[in-house]
């Protein structure tokens, strides 16, 4: 069973994350989308709400599971028996940052990180921009899956 962990804050999930997960479904038997809750102080949505948004977006996809975790990502990979970490790359800044983390994770655990380049149509989207749009009353719905709606 090829299992990949897709770790992140997902505050909230965006069309960029959605695209990465959809495309990775062809590569793995199961994708565990794992919401990291180490640094909760500045989040806009609770971990429960973030989980709900992702679960609803993939409710028809049995290969996607959503969890929360704290602590080291590689420790959580071992706990759930994930052999791969999945990450998206938007730009050179992402690459530089992710490179150091991926090397560290492999040094610590031997776990490989698999990178997918973002689709050009979603490469400009980030959760922090989505939060800004929400805070200022803009139309965030064009940046996120339909499951992300604020009452
Ligand atoms: P983190 O707090 O770990 O950066 P995010 O929720 O922002 O968590 O991102 C999780 C993963 O999704 C990262 O690999 C990030 O590069 C990727 N990602 C973020 N935005 C996009 C996007 N627009 N397109 C594709 N991948 C993205």
From TrEMBL:
UniProt entry tagged with the keyword Cytoplasm: yes
This protein's GO CC annotations: cytoplasm
InterPro entries in alphabetical order: Cyt_trans-like, PPAT, Rossmann-like_a/b/a_fold
Any Pfam family hit: CTP_transf_like
GO biological process: coenzyme A biosynthetic process
Top-rank lineage group of the source organism: Bacteria
GO molecular function list: ATP binding; pantetheine-phosphate adenylyltransferase activity
Enzyme class: transferase
Annotated site, Transition state stabilizer, chain positions: 17
Entry keywords, A to Z: ATP-binding, Coenzyme A biosynthesis, Cytoplasm, Magnesium, Nucleotide-binding, Nucleotidyltransferase, Transferase
Catalytic activity: (R)-4'-phosphopantetheine + ATP + H(+) = 3'-dephospho-CoA + diphosphate
CDD domains documented for this protein: PPAT
Binding site for substrate: 9, 41, 73, 87
Every Cytidyltransferase-like domain range: 5-132
Entry EC no(s): 2.7.7.3
Biological or metabolic pathway of the protein: Cofactor biosynthesis; coenzyme A biosynthesis; CoA from (R)-pantothenate: step 4/5
Function: Reversibly transfers an adenylyl group from ATP to 4'-phosphopantetheine, yielding dephospho-CoA (dPCoA) and pyrophosphate.
Membership in a protein family: Belongs to the bacterial CoaD family.
Binding partners and assembly: Homohexamer.
Entries under NCBIfam families matching the protein: coaD_prev_kdtB, cyt_tran_rel
Protein name (Swiss-Prot/TrEMBL): Phosphopantetheine adenylyltransferase
Gene from which the chain derives: coaD
């Amino acid at each position: 069973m090829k299992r990949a962990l897709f770790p992140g804050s997902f505050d909230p999930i965006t069309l960029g994350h959605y695209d990465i997960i959809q495309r990775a479904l062809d590569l793995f038997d199961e994708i565990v989308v794992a919401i990291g809750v180490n640094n909760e102080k500045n989040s806009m949505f609770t971990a429960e709400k973030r989980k709900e948004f992702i679960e609803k977006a993939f409710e028809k996809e049995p290969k996607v599971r959503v969890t929360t975790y704290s602590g080291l990502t590689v420790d959580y990979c071992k706990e759930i028996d994930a052999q791969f970490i999945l990450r998206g790359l938007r730009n050179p800044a992402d690459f530089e940052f992710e490179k150091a983390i991926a090397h560290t994770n492999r040094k610590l655990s031997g776990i490989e990180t698999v990178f997918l380049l973002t689709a050009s149509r979603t490469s400009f989207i980030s959760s922090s921009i989505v939060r800004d749009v929400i805070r200022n009353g803009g139309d965030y719905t064009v940046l996120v899956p339909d499951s992300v709606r604020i009452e």
